[in-house]
UniProtKB/TrEMBL annotation:
<dbReference type="InterPro" id="IPR036873">
    <property type="entry name" value="Rhodanese-like_dom_sf"/>
</dbReference>
<dbReference type="InterPro" id="IPR044528">
    <property type="entry name" value="POD-like_MBL-fold"/>
</dbReference>
<protein>
    <submittedName>
        <fullName>Rhodanese-like domain-containing protein</fullName>
    </submittedName>
</protein>
<feature type="domain" description="Rhodanese">
    <location>
        <begin position="270"/>
        <end position="361"/>
    </location>
</feature>
<keyword id="KW-0479">Metal-binding</keyword>
<dbReference type="InterPro" id="IPR051682">
    <property type="entry name" value="Mito_Persulfide_Diox"/>
</dbReference>
<dbReference type="Pfam" id="PF00581">
    <property type="entry name" value="Rhodanese"/>
</dbReference>
<dbReference type="Pfam" id="PF00753">
    <property type="entry name" value="Lactamase_B"/>
</dbReference>
<dbReference type="InterPro" id="IPR036866">
    <property type="entry name" value="RibonucZ/Hydroxyglut_hydro"/>
</dbReference>
<dbReference type="InterPro" id="IPR001763">
    <property type="entry name" value="Rhodanese-like_dom"/>
</dbReference>
<feature type="domain" description="Rhodanese">
    <location>
        <begin position="375"/>
        <end position="463"/>
    </location>
</feature>
<dbReference type="InterPro" id="IPR001279">
    <property type="entry name" value="Metallo-B-lactamas"/>
</dbReference>
Amino acid sequence: MKIEQIYTGCIAHAAYYLENNGEAAIFDPLREVQPYIDKATKDNATIKYIFETHFHADFVSGHLDLAKKTGAQIVYGPTAQPNFDAIIATDGQEFKIGNYTVRAIHTPGHTLESTCYLLLDENENMHGIITGDTLFIGDVGRPDLAQKLVSDLTQEKLASMLYDSLRNKIMPLPDDLIVYPNHGAGSACGKNMSKETTDTLGNQKKVNYALRADMTKEEFITELLDGLGAPPAYFPQNVLMNIQGYDSLDTVMAKANSPLSPDEFKTLANQSEALLLDVRHESEFVKEHIPGSIFIGLQGNFAPWVGALIMDVQQPILLIAPEGKEKETITRLSRVGFDNCLGYLEGGLTSWKAAGFETDSVVSITAEQFAAEKDQTRLTIVDARKPGEFSAEHVDGAINIPLDFVNSQLAEVPTENDFYLHCAGGYRSVIMASILKARGYHNIINVEKGMSGIRNTNTVLTNFVCPSTQN
């Protein structure tokens, strides 16, 4: 069977391209749709269907643009109510892609409309199943997203539905069936996903905690909800965009891909109350940046951190980006619904300084300097990593303020004296430093390379079981 997984690591997303006998289908496409069109053109194929496993929360799908550009029909599972033309498949309904068959299997639980797509080859043999967020490799989808949009739903009700969907619809299928999920490790749509992006159903029955044969529904619900942190704030906003529609990426790009002189940039920043987003490397931001700008570097988990920390997808944004990376940045912002980019600083920080405008910096030291200073005196240390990372190992005496929660835990940020800030490798601590500096905290000393550097010094490390209130 000709099926290709198209994996985008920065948001841990998998789309799928299925082609046979001059017809093609795309499953869960990203916002930028030209690569799918190019694949079909190369195969002399027509894209016939765009299958959506559910209304996605962690990214804005490309279904509308792809349908407009190709004439393909959008397909959702039962109970879906989009604000645009789409086929609402019945449970068990089949669709032909050349000589292949795609069978819709309604699997509510992650969301009410969640649907998996069973793939049958030209001989009607079962080959694989595209599971969306119903079944991951090593995990299953979180059941607490649809309740944000449907008031009488609870995560317990959805978890109960998911248990039934897995036991009654997925687990009875053949063990040699290939599982093709929508996400891999790093996605916030689950909590225990593997780095592997495909597996056989039979192996998942052996190793996936949620598929234990002797698991009761009560045990499933308890284990699924245990340790499930709050979803990022942008998730419900992305769901609504996927249901209601959105501007074409071409329109977004035409507006955002606009070079601005330093004077134009500064004037627009003052007039629009735009957020100044600096996406360069953290080492560059630390040395010099525009005062008040927020750092979220392209080289890290850029889009998920934008969504988690900026909160409102309507927020106007002005970019400071490496030369030649402006279009990439705008595209990656659009993947998570941030379409209100007003333009970028032409010439970057070089042109800003040439115009005579001031810059700021972050005090930053090496891990070796940090260890030497800690040997001499008791330091105030803030660890920006997640609670689980902090529990496993941290600097003796450090306090944990996870970057995810910095906006809600500002009261815990030290104010009287300088404090030392670190994360795992140096990326998150600079993000946090930029947010705090923009809010008026200037008593920050960043520790370069974070724990990866600190471990190579003589700094005393310890373990600690975090209280549940920090989860």
